[in-house]
Amino acid sequence: MPRAGLSTSAVVDAALALVDEAGLAALTLAAVAGRTGVATPSLYKHVAGLGELRTLLGIRVLEDMTERFTTAVLGHSGDDAVAALLHAYRDYVRAHPARYAAMPLDPLHDPALAAAGGKQLEVVLATLRAYGLADSAAVHAARCLRAVAHGFASLEAGGGFGLPEDLDQTYDQLVRAVIASLPRT
Fold first, then answer.
1. Is residue 18 within 8 Å of 25, Cβ to Cβ?
2. Which CATH number covers residue 15?
3. Which domain holds residue 95?
4. How far apart are CA 110 and CA 129, in angstroms?
5. How far apart are CA 26 and CA 136, in angstroms?
6. The whole model's pTM is what?
């Protein structure tokens, strides 16, 4: 019988807290079991194993990012919406670098993650609609936005910018350059 109060969602919450505190490498079923106060075999009542737990973490991160992106772009359009999206992306990675590392790079091709990944992509594509982009052109633009935000934020989270110049200024310059590069139809 499952422990009172313990659910799949609570197991994912505990795993996310562990990842936030100790990094993705610290994620083991034993560590999550210890955090939730149960024996490791008891977790199998809630998750099938570490693989499923990692998938559930990925879904949660995608959903959380999508919610933040949606909130950021609401009420904005065009260049302002793209800037808000890119800043929300960077802010998420800065706030949760280890959690972000738990997100699979290609969620759209994993059946378990495709729905959550698709919702995030829809927010990005909706942000780009003001540019009149459709089909392949919209996908290419979305990839460019992701590459810029992911690349910068990942380098920043990993300590890859050692020079003293202000990172906010650098990112703002990059955001302006990306916006200027978007096709205008």
1. no
2. 1.10.10.60
3. 58-181
4. 26
5. 39
6. 0.92
